[in-house]
Amino acid sequence: MKPAPAPARGSYAEGFADVAETFAAQLEDEVGASFAAYHHGERVVDLWGGKADRARAWERDTRIVVFSVTKGLTAMAFALLTDRGQLDWDAPVAQYWPGFAGGGKGAITVATLLEHRAGLVGLDVPITLDECIDGAPRVLAALEAQRPSWQPGTQQGYHAITFGLFARELFERIAGEDLGGFLRRELFTPLGADVDVGTPPVVDARIATLYPPSNASRVVRMLGAAIRGNTAEGRIARDVIKRGSLARAAFSTPSSGPLGLAVYNTQRVRRAQLAWANATASADGLARAYAPFALGGAAFGKTYLSGSTLAPIYLRQHWSENDLVLHKPIGWSRGFVKEQGELFSPNLESFGHPGMGGALGWADPVAQLSFGYTMNKLDYRVRSPRTIALCHALYRSVRSVGSVGSVGTQGRATSSSESAG
Hints:
The protein is α+β, with helices and mostly antiparallel strands. The chain contains 15 helices and 15 strands.
C-alpha cells in the first residue's frame, strides 16, 4: 500500500492513485471525511482526513451519522431473514404483522412495502422524533391506521422516513428481537465492520460532529434550485413547498423539532434504532459490511448469505423513470437502491444505499467491489458531486488494474445489458 497524498491520510493499493488524488483534492471542500474500498475482498483504498469537529482531527476509525445509508443496513437484516427461510417477499405484510392490514393495507406484500411502492410515503397523524425514540403507542397506531396514497404496487415513491418506521416494526415481529442487536451479532461483529444501528456509549468518543447547512442556507439553495428548473433538486424543492404534496409528506413526518438535522448530533438520537436514519459508521465499516454482498455471500473467511438470496437483489426488481418523491430515475431491489449507471457504478447489478449529505455504502458483485464514504459536511443535493467523483475515480482505477471480477458461483447476476429496466 502507498501513503496517501497530503492533506489526506491513509493508504491505497497500486493502481488506485486516482482515488487517493481525488479524495485529497476534495478535502478542501470538506470538514472531515473518509473513503474505503475492498476489491476481491482485499482492502485497496483506506483514506481519511480533515476534522471530526473544530477541535479534533478525523481519524481512521472516526464515525458519523450516515442518515439513509441506514436503510441499506436495514435491508441487510431482511436479506439475512430471507436466507434463513423466515421471510417470504411475496407474502402479505399482515401475515407477519396482523395490525398492518388496517387502512386497507391487507394485500400489500413485503416486496411492495420495502421497495417503496406501497403508497405509504407519509403519515396522516403528526408524530415527533421523540415519540419514535420512546416507542409511543400512538406511533404504532398511526402506522396501522395509515391508508395508502395510491393503489399499492402501481407506482413508486421514496418512503424517506416511513420506510424505517414500517421496516423496523416488521423486522422485530419476524425476528423477535431488535434490529440493531441482530445486525451487530449476525453481521457487523463477525465482519469486523465498524457500524451500528443504535450506537452504544463506548463509541461516543469516536463520533464526529455533523455540519448540516443552516436553515437559511438550505432555503436559499432550494429556492435557487427551484428557479434553475429541471434538476432533481429543483423538482423536489417545488414539491416540498407545495401543501399536500407527496414530497412534503415524505420528508416532514416525524418532525425533528427545533434543532432540525442537528438533532442527530445528540446521544439520545444516536442511541435509538431509527431504521431510516441514525446508524453511525466509519467508511471502512460500511465497506466491510457490504463485502459479503459483493462477493457472493462470503467474506473474510465466513459465509453469511447464499447466492440464491443475493441473485434477486442484483436485478432491478422495480424501476421508475420518475420516482414520485425524488423526481428522478431510481429503483429498489429488496430494500436496496438501484441507481442510474452514471452515478455510483456502471454495473446495474450493483446496489446499496446513499444517505442525505453524501454518505454511501455500496456493493458491486460484477466488479467484486464494496466501498463506503462518510463525511460530516452535508451537501444539500440529492446526490453529492463529491460522492460521485470518488465513485468514478474508483472505477477508473479498477479498469486500470485490468480486473472487473465475477459474480459468485451460487447466483449469477445478469450483465448490464440483460438487467430489467
